[in-house]
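Async update (no meeting this week)

Hi team, since we skipped the sync, here's where things stand on the single-chain job. The sequence we agreed to prioritize is pasted below, unchanged from the tracker. I ran it this morning and attached the output directly underneath so nobody has to dig for it. Comments welcome in thread, and please keep replies under the output.
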Amino acid sequence: MTYRRFKLIWPPVLIIVLLLLLLQLLTGIGVIRDFIIPPPTAVFSAMVEQHHLLWPHIRVTTEIALIGFVLAVLFGSLMSILMERVRWLYRAFYPLIVASQTIPTIVITPVIVLLFGFGTWPRLVVVVLVCFFPLTLSFLQGLYTVDPDLIRLMRSMGANEAETLLHVKLPASLPSFFAGLKISATYCVTAAVLSEWSGSGLGLGVYMMRTKRSYAYDRMFASIVWIVLLSLIIYLLSTLLEYLFTPWLRNERKKHATRKRATAL
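Output:
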C-alpha cells in the first residue's frame, strides 16, 4: 500500500522540484528578471517573514471558502434530489443553472456586492455560485444513471420513494457526487479570492492586490502559493471523505489492481 502511494506521489513531486530548480537557475543567471518573477527562494522567504501579516488574510479566505463550499454542497445536493424527483423543477431550473455559469465570475461579483453590500454575505454568494454548478450536475447525473432494475426491485418489495432514495439511489450515485465535490473543492478558494477583489478588508485576494500595486512580487507570489496550498488541502479532504464513504470502490480498485498484476505476470 505504501509503495503504491509512493509511486503515485513521486512523479508530480519530482516535476515540481525540477521546475522550481529551473526557475531558480533562470532567475539567478538573469534570463528571467527577478523583479518580474521572483526566484522560489525569495517567495519562500516572503512566506516565512510575512507570516504574521499573511495569517489574518489566510484565516479569512479559508473561512469564506469552507463555509461557502459547505453551503454549496448542501444546496446543490438538495437541488439535485428535487430535480430528479420533480420533473418540472428540472425543466424550470436546469437551463437557469447552466446559464448562471456562462457569466464570468469577475463580472457578476460587483453586481452581487451591489445587491448584498460589503461584508461576508456577497463573498459567500460568489463561492456558492461557483461551487454549486459542478456538484449539482454531477450528482444529478449520478441519480439519473442508477440501475433501474434495482429501483424496480425495491418497489416490488414495497419500498416507498424515500426508502428507495436512501438505500439505492444515494449509495449508487455517491461516486458521481464525490466527483463533483472534488471539482467544487478546487474552485472554492479561487472563488473566495475573486470575491475579495470587489471589496473586502482582509483576505488573500486583498493581500495579493496590495502587494501587486506596491510591486512586491515576492509577497504576491507567496499569497498565490498559499491559495494553491489551501485548494489542495480542501481537495484532499474531499478525497478523504470519498475514501471513507465509498468502501466498495476501494475493494473494486484492489480487485482491478490484482487482476492487472495477474495479467502482467
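Quick observations from my side:
The chain has a mean pLDDT of 86.
The two ends are 19 Å apart (CA to CA).
Reply here if anything looks off.
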